[in-house]
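Input/output pair, single chain:
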Amino acid sequence: MSIALPSAVALDSRFARELPEMAVAWQAADAPEPRLLALDESLAVELGLDPDRLRGPDGVRLLVGAAVPAGATPVAQAYAGHQFGGYSPRLGDGRALLLGELVDGDGRLWDLHLKGSGRTPFARGGDGFAVVGPMLREYVVSRAMHALGVPTTRSLAVVATGRTVRRETALPGAVLARVAAGHLRVGSFQYARATGDLGLVRRLADHAIARHHPGVDGYLGLFDAVVSAQASLVARWMLVGFVHGVMNTDNMTISGETIDYGPCAFLDAFDPAAVYSSIDHGGRYAFGNQPAIAEWNLARLAEALLPLLHDDQERAVAVAVEALGRFRPQYNAAFSAGMAAKLGLPGGADLDAGLVDELLAVLRDGHVDFTSFFRTLSGVARGAAAPDLAGIGGWVARWRALGPDADAMDRVNPVYIPRNHLVEEALGAATDGDLAPFERLVEAVSAPFDERSGLERYAAPAPADFGAYRTFCGT
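Output:
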């Protein structure tokens, strides 16, 4: 249904217009009793939207796709993807809709996208719905990631639908409204390439350049730009202890934003082998594997782009391999610079990789909470005693000799992250109708570097009895 909403909510349908072969016009399922659970008012203002109108009946109906601006064409996007290494030629938005693109006050283009809005032709047997817990998880984790300075899709709102959704038990349904610079994925290019239509691959690449990487030098420049964006992104994940959990190629964006917060988590005790996803039985997407998986995914993008890189197949492969080879040095440089900042060392310093490796080994062997440690370390830089950890004494002496800046450390090492035990507590309460723990958690992680009185439990590591943590995608 189209209605006359305020002009600020005007939505374009550029993706559907330019790439009709990859867009299926579709309508969101009806939400029997929509009720707003969460709204990022600051994000709404950034987008030029009126939070009060979004809270009203017409705004809430927009946020579940029940009513869209006149002229908008909601679509389910088509894409393929490697899921846990196995190729699926037809995935697509099985429970999601791109409502359209909007322009903010600075002229930037954003997708307005729904998740959990009902079955589409890509649903593959699923019911197309989502439930309150996982949608609020994406809201709080993406909010935290943005506050941490990690490129991410952003959650605008979560709306309870009034529908009961069957999973292991009956659960309250919800829709997430999110915004992103774009929803093009590596899997989008895999889908286009699989059609055998080189013209479609070229138009998709042109669309991606214009939307995300204007000014690059041709299609090789596009690939280089995506390699750089992903090298920087994954380094940022590693620096804050974020585990994505499901790094399939359909979950890697061309824009370089983090997308699809399903079975995600933040590290408790530091462990490169940490796996939190209930479906990652082999540990493919373990914390320490994330850089290598990103590189593997980029190789799949290169394969899809080969016909655009050179007319000669062998030459195209050589060009792609050379470009892909730039991922690891760029990732290493970004991670090294980030670790130097976390340790309070000058940005131009030649950081000794051995110093970092030794520290991470101490953290791993001591099962040390990753986030808390670096805030404690800034106290050590100010003269406090070193933590009581095996092997830390000599390391601290060498580090102190480099003159770390404690104030600079506090600007990059968060006090508050969405700690797993607090996320589960908040989502459990919200599912039962109590949003207060969720709202307090959102408040804490929205300003992660600013230590505040009264939020001590949000800075504390998980209790000893929290146990092995597993997350679920919610589909």
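Residues 134 and 474 are 6 Å apart (CA to CA). The first helix runs from residue 14 to 18.
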